[in-house]
Design brief:
alpha/beta; 5 strands; 6 helices; homooctamer; Rossmann fold; globular; about 15% strand
Chain lengths: ~150, ~150, ~150, ~150, ~150, ~150, ~150, ~150
């Protein structure tokens, strides 16, 4: 397995599904589970030590400790996705403002798809088939912008 | 021992010293250690499981996961103190915005003394000698305000 | 009675009901009343001096002075719950940023259930039956996460 | 006496002195005292009930409950001055965001002079000598701008 | 006439109606008009110079210059009401953060009723009938809190 | 004259000097004066109606009404420069968040040089000599980046 | 053609339509296209080098790099319009806080109409017919305020 | 070469030096250059197309477009480091809030060392010697916490 996706709570599923849709499209293997840094800390510990993932994607809202807690227990790259709520800044700053020594790669609020793309970019450094898929994905984005542009300029 | 103080980093010591000064004055026993939720997660786990403290005070800045990570592993009350930095809101929101089920008792930015007073209030529910000390402490605060007021109104 | 819940206004009732549901489940006795720091200051004063509560939970929005005003008149632990509104930061900062000497234990925005759990943790230091209830409560949270995880990983 | 100035703490004195300088210049009588809403609530109550002031100026930082607590106990106009600190937004929002029914007249961060001018404007509605002083004060402000402008345009 | 209410735009009418309801109840005479600091600056100038009001209430959103622009042209007390929008902080800070020399009395976001009560408090300094009305108004607020409290404690 | 620079207060001079340095270098004629929207509104009115400037640059801090007040009285482009202070967001949002119908062209905090460059870009649409100067200015910026880059990569 | 409007994404169309409605009313020629600074950077480059526009209007949300990226490649004035989203401050600050040397003229959140008016003001410096149209536009705004005012004061 | 570090301006050098110190310690090859997204866009384009780096680290302040502009032109992972300034939130949000499709891996404010560690974690997926170095680095961090802890608990 290449990517382990971890949600802090079932309510983060919509953001996770943006990630899994991209990983499927790019043919990147993944597993998904729920493990709360605050409600099930032992589960997070066990998960990280047992997972044979090359990259972690951690998705959480509020005081979003999950990405940092995973990063504390693995040397693999950890991508953090802050989830929107009443404040938004709480999740963003909790994910981004990690102390020196333990990095988390933060993507934007609710940006599950970008977490998946970043994971794929990382994996593509040693797997050229993913690189090809990523290029195709980008080309489709460009084509869509061009089509949209022709439409509004008509 | 009654209170276990945990700092996320040695740089939080100035805030911790506000807490220890108050605990000493009130005769509340405590221990103090450094254990980072991100750099030494196993240390935090061991600390929490071994500590025989009745109340925890966790002091941390930036993405301040420490109070929540301790709260995730103990049923004892955990008081969180956000430490000031370039943003301040990152530490405050990380400490305050805990998810449902795992409370942290947040005090204000750099308010080590208030963390100690809150711990003492909690302990005083079953130890009347602490309650007496707290009352004295408050009276001194009041007396100081009254003296200050006489000075400015002179 | 163990816990006195005070709302700043009837509109805070939904947050209070999260607290009372938890206290009932844990078998912690409580009373609930409305007393505004700004509209009925004498009521707050009388309430605090007459209440035989061991812990206070104060729930308020906007410039949420209520927790601090109660803390100013009692030596008991006071838990403050900021209530969401157009800004959110006003209530959070009003509850958290107490001056040195008078602590409030702030929980997250609208986190009535966490206020109740924190109160129960405090009371459990001298009442073991509450500690047992809390442990059960936590176990249920964990079980739910595990069930949710199995569901999404299916 | 016309204006009662109340500081939450001696550290707010610099802001208060901006107010007293203006009141002296305009010949408005005032008294000044320190009374913390959190450390000396009874003092605030007694002060408000005994003061024969027509306008109150309350100066406080952090979770600045003082203006609201005074407004809760008097029908006189209360002017609130938020005092700067590590966050600033905490004091501003605590002073401004009063609930319906109990107004506070907020002025800007550290704006003691504006609190005094507003108090004088209010008192001038029935005391024409103050109105004349205010007009002079404004004229001096204008003259200074014009002189400054000539200097930079030279 | 005692109070001149000025709206920056017709969309601020809902906030203004909270003010007029209170002024009617207290028997305070007022007029209401729309005059934008940005779209009709001459109208604002003429309005201020012609109005025989003792107190102004200015209601505006976004970059809410209206209260300050009125305050720049009158020596009468000017109460500013920030109106909610996509940001809220823009209107609040524009109304509160006036430069030294020209005060505005800011009330909370959308707090038209508090603007009216503050105006009435100011006018009551020389008109005792308004003071009596204000006291009644407050008593009703208190009675409502007490009734609400009895209901929830039932 | 091409550009009229207006400062809200003499304390904004450092930001204005960044603008005048650029205008001089580009050979754009300008005048500079101080005129406060709040302390000298009549001066602002007279200035705007008498100035034969093609572009205005208005520089102000706090509740920075000056750019909007000038824009309200002229059909010429008005560039607004927010000036830094204790909050920064107050000035930025006051300058940017203009209501529909009356635009201000906001540049960044303390960015006097960018205001001058923007004014020059606008004037260059009908004066090619300014366009040439702007191109040279940009080339120097590029050259500096390239030199700096060679230095750090050495 | 006079004005080139560029949207970062099709979802910004509603804001762009506010701009095109104004440009049509004022008889200012324009073209509109979609070109993302992040998804189609080459398209942005080509667009800027090929467009014979005198003024650019760039409309984008989130980390709104588009206005700055266009400004980096043209000496023409670039007007930036931040588009609202979950945070709003991200788009506003990305558009406003340009580094020294490369100005963007920021207008308010979603203020497409103000971008168009600012573009028209700039173009009117050499085209008097636009100036006349702008004056009419302003007069209509004023008339509407006056009519609205008469309605509420009735 | 493995890592290409790009600074938006020479003033970001202090943050870059935290990154280069870590890369040197871990034996990861890198190059460093300055290339502004706004002042030298062609340089950024050329740099990205010519660099044979596997990972990019982009360091910038204010409206920090640089990481996103690089990410727009490469399929390699791009790590963005926001640099502190008067606001901080501008740089953080500009780096984090990338639109769907083009991810940037954001680290904390001024966290050059974490950018380097994240780059090393990514590269270690195919180079085990880096993984070993990273483990050593972490162990040193832990040892330091433990030594610090013994010191404060003495």
């Amino acid at each position: 397995m290449s990517v382990q996706i971890v949600l802090g709570s079932k309510s983060d599923l919509k953001v996770a599904e943006k990630a899994t849709a991209v990983l499927k499209e790019l043919g990147v293997s993944y597993r998904i589970c729920i493990a709360s840094a605050h409600r099930t800390p032992e589960l997070v510990d066990r998960l990280v030590s047992e997972a044979d993932a090359e990259v972690f994607i951690a998705i959480a809202g509020l005081s979003a400790a999950l990405p940092g807690v995973i990063a504390a227990r693995t040397g693999r790259p950890v991508i953090g996705v802050p989830v929107s709520g009443a404040l938004n800044l709480d999740a963003i700053l909790s994910v981004v403002q990690m102390p020196p020594g333990i990095p988390v790669a933060a993507v934007g609020l609710d940006r599950g798809e970008n977490a998946a793309l970043l994971a794929a970019q990382i994996l593509s450094l040693k797997d050229e088939s993913i690189a090809a898929g990523l290029e195709e994905y980008r080309q489709k984005l460009k084509d869509k912008v061009i089509r949209d542009s022709q439409e509004v300029d008509a």
